[in-house]
Amino acid sequence: MQYVTAHNFDADEAPSLRCLKILRMHLRKARSDFAIPKAHSDHERLKAGIDDALHKTGIDHALQKTGIDHALQKTGIDQAFHNARSDPTGVVIEASDLPKDTRKKYREKQSDLVNLGVAGIALMCVSTHAANIEGNLADEGLELLLEMLNDGNQVVQVSCAMRCQRVTLREGILSVISSNPTAITAYESYHSLNSHQ
Fold first, then answer.
1. CA-based, 20 to 30 A from 166: which of 35, 53, 108, 125?
2. Which sequence spans correspond to the domains of the chain?
3. Per-residue pLDDT tens for 127-164?
4. Minimal CA–CA distance to 39: which of 87, 89, 82, 92?
5. Is 5 helix (H, G, I), strand (E, B) or coil?
6. Which residues lie closer than 8 Å to 26 by C-beta, 6 or more apart?
7. Residue 75 has pLDDT above 70, yes or no
8. pLDDT at res. 171
């Protein structure tokens, strides 16, 4: 991230763009089917896919009444069978559809990037470059911020808000109207845990 800061105003943005794209792809891979751990056998993978699909659709009780074939056909869970059997293909999955442990790891990766100062660098890129040019540092910084804020990560939200508050106090340009006490508590507890490691 020091490179992007040092070369923020270079005429050739390509190296800095690559840095931001790599970080964004790092997060996207964390919520792709590559991040979902493979079960020990096809049977376990199949069962995990069925259980997850049944829980998400809320029809676990309907199976007891109607029978499995009818329920699978009606809800499209037969696709879950296919997905549970297939190998990862790199398909990016919505964070809300990730298994619980994979979703937790995804949020940890987002928070780790905050600790590395990535949110501040992305905000700097957005604020120092033209917003109407596709593929420039402002555009890629915004894409990275959107991926970091995906799934409502409160650590990232508070980090961005605090960065905006510092700019407000220093330059009087931006203002943060309200803050979320829960988010601030989450951010502070996360940083207190990481500072002891």
1. 108
2. 42-87, 102-195
3. 888 878 898 999 999 999 999 999 988 899 888 888 87
4. 87
5. helix
6. 109
7. no
8. 45
Burial 40-60 (b: 16+ CB within 10 A, else e): eeeeebbebbbebbbeeeebe
Question: What pLDDT is recorded for position 21?
Answer: 93
∠ CA(77), CA(80), CA(84), 5° rounding? 155
Q: How many CB atoms lie within 10 A of CB 27?
A: 20
Mean pLDDT of 37-50: 55
CA distances from 105 to 29, 111, 113, 149, 153 (A): 11, 10, 12, 14, 12
Tokens for 22, please give them.
Answer: 């790599």
For residues 158 and 191, the answer to whether their CB atoms sit within 8 Å is no
Q: Is the confidence at residue 87, as pLDDT, over 80?
A: no
Higher pLDDT, 106 or 71: 106
Q: Which residue has the tokens 């960065």?
A: 163
